Amino acid sequence: MGEFIGAIDQGTTSTRFIIFDRNGNMVGVDQKEHRQIYPKPGWVEHDPEEIWLNTQEVIRGALAKTGIRGSDLAALGVTNQRETTILWNRKTGKPFHHAVVWQCMRTADICKALTAEAGQDRFRHLTGLPVATYFSGPKIQWILNHVPAARAAAGKGEALFGTVETWIIWWLTGGPAGGAHVTDVTNASRTLLMNLHTLDWDDQLLEAMEIPRQILPRIVPSSDRHIWGQTLPSGPLGAEVPVCGALGDQQAAMVGQACFETGEAKNTYGTGCFLLLHTGHTPVRSTHGLITTVAYQMADQKPAYCLEGSVAIAGALVQWLRDNLGLISHAAEIETLAAQVEDNGGIYFVPAFSGLFAPYWRSDARGVIVGMTRYVNKAHIARAVLEATAYQTRDIVEAMNRDSGVALQKLKVDGGMVYNDLLMQFQADTLKVPVIRPKIAETTALGAAYAAGLAAGFWSGLEDLSRNWASDRTWDPVMPDDHRERGYEGWKKAVQKSLGWAA
What we know:
six-stranded mixed β-sheet; alpha+beta; single chain
């Protein structure tokens, strides 16, 4: 057996290949960004072929940097931006359309039609999800409705659908020459097409969205001893390596954070912000605007479920401050700028650029800055940008506490923003719980590596993975209660001002 595990981390803005050793330490990495395509306001696309090319490049790059060979890898796992939707030709591998990204709002009319009779919770009893532009099913329907070649190919059995892990696994294992067409249960649970109880595609859902079953991949466990396929010796690894682990990025971070017990929670601060709470082996239905989803399924075991709160805009707001306003040159500069002032100067920034996700689910919301006076300067704006991420997280924690009946005791955190000390301290303060960053911060890729490694016998069980987890830094809350609650009241008033802007 090889000495290492490889993980492809295909995110919203870039693709990485990371190599891990048996202790979960990162021993090699390569990364490449891909284009963000905005054809219309609120529309977001990626080029699937560019993503596959980048995937091959970063695999070769990480191997070249480390001197590790593909044959040194015991297995390969994949983690991915979830919900992003690709339809392609089974025979040629050519996409029928750019990938429609999870943030994209183009399916608003489809979602409005789906909710006309029974409301946003029409399918929640089956899927755990509200009807929203976020999920893949309406995106598939949009492509089939607007790309005649896709609809024709789907009717003839020549079209394939996949979220991005499905697309990459298909190419890794042969593509048009017999590539494996699979999706793991966590990604399938984000399509609005899978029954959360049977873990299979549901005919009622397929009929409602006019989606033919034959285009859908086979649903498999996140970690699968029945390997889906081998990489090709002619491919970027230059060797046959089993592909047997996959998780949507937020569930992968949960596995990487070793959140294997009921009541454990993690928050990932990336382009968006995603807080997941482990609820055990029975799905808990949310009545407070959260998503019920699959946390992971290991081999032949029962699936674990979680409640999730999804924030569309977190790190993306820092990018916006950099790229659209030019207030900073590099994302890391926001902490220095924000630290120049003691507080937000009375302003709040609600970043509802593509509506508000959990717990509001309001596609009619738009971004607002409220409380402006002549006293406010760019440092106050920078601080309000960081505070927006923390306040959106508190919205979700409040909903989780009500849904689960258990108050959050601590929060494990990961993602690019966890190296911002000002944000992490404010997060601990506004939640009034300790915030803990792990020593191995690449938890998303690590989760995918763990899924593949468990399937291949590289690690023996979840206990092995829990032993690898260790704390790097903890932020304890220090803010006075009255200050904390006054700030949160201001945030809730600001959210109300963001609603109802778009028809």
